[in-house]
What does this fold into?
Amino acid sequence: MLLLSREDIKKVFTIQDAVEADKKAFTLVSEGKCDSPLRTKIQAPKYDGCFLFMPAYIEEMDTASLKTVNIFPHNIDNGLPSSPAQVLLIDGKTGVVTAVLDGTYVTQLRTGASSGAAFELLAKKNCRIGALIGTGGQAATQLEAMIAVRKLEEVRVYDLNYERTVRFAEQMQKELESYGTKITAVRSSDEAIDDADLLITVTPSSKPVFDGTKIKKGCTISCVGAYQHHMQEMDPAILPRASKIYFDSKEAVLSESGDILLPLEEGLITEDDFTGDIGDVIKGNLTGRENDDEIIVYETVGVGAQDLVTARIIYEKALKAGVGTQWG
It folds into this structure.
């Protein structure tokens, strides 16, 4: 069994690799080729936490996986990951666990790449300004994916804690210097979204984190954080303004995400307003962006296929490069 740490993975796998892995995963989901039951959740209310278990099996790849990812938002105050995780990669022919990967980093990569894939497929070609709301454990790869698929002049970052936002922006400016994008900490959500062509929200908020009436025409929005029914970081005011609403998986979103479930329950939108899954855009079964004025919303909660495909490709690259630690 191969053990792959965060540093091992960094040696063989980039955010661009992750975007391609996610696109493959979304295609398999849309084709019905991934057996990926909805994740099992166990609440830990004492710590505002949640344990999540995500299995997946893709027969044509002879591979299964199981990810444990546990969401503990207060960890960030103690210098710990807000979503610690491990991914087990399993040989589909024998049932033997072939690798254990740092699931926190795999999750960061594949979750950031989900926004990256959506922007690559759905955003305007000429984007200048990006906005990122949230600076937690998933934020760094969200930011990198955004600037990896669209050449941006500036990304404005907002979080409730301004000092933390400044530290995050300064760190990201150093780490992502090669992209040539200015990364700026701002003091308000309105300042972040002003004139933004791309917007990512990645928070556990139970109330909207931006004003949907102030989003400009042509903006593409990826909402990442609302993985439970009570969470709603998306301002529902954006939904009637949106020309198209896409998902990583409609089934998964409608089982979990307050961003969509709450407006549905309130009658602000109906399922007739949904465009469909992003995998069908990749396959050419659904139309993507048709003009530069369309506001497009992408809601993602994550699916097990992303973890499986990402982990499998990392494993193959690591074997080829001789990276990782053999155990047992």
About this structure: The CA atoms of residues 27 and 283 lie 7 Å apart. The longest strand covers residues 49-58. The first helix runs from residue 6 to 12. The chain has eleven helices and 15 strands.
